[in-house]
Amino acid sequence: MNDFKPLDPLLHSQLRLAVMSLLLSVESAEFTFIKEKTQATAGNLSVQLDKLSEAGYIRVEKAFRGKKPVTTCQITEQGLEAFERYVNALKGYIE
């Protein structure tokens, strides 16, 4: 019998999991890039980024490029570890 580990509810959301997966493969990503890749609405994406940021899974930096606001996201060490735990727990369900 498998020893099922609980799945992190924060990462078990389709959009938050997509964001984390995207950020794993890049050094950082701008909000517009993440929005385009996930096909999320700006409002929903913003809420989900806030949740990931509050958990310490991502770092969100807001700046300006000229007069235009730019939001950049980056996965943290804590987020990387949480993602690895999530993937390992998921493997327990399918092996």
TrEMBL record:
Residues 15-94 form the Winged helix DNA-binding domain. This is Winged helix-turn-helix domain-containing protein. The lineage of its organism: Bacteria, Pseudomonadati, Bacteroidota, Cytophagia, Cytophagales. It comes from Marinoscillum luteum. It comes from the Bacteria. SUPFAM superfamilies: Winged helix' DNA-binding domain (SSF46785). It holds the Pfam family HTH_34. Gene3D superfamilies: Winged helix-like DNA-binding domain superfamily/Winged helix DNA-binding domain.
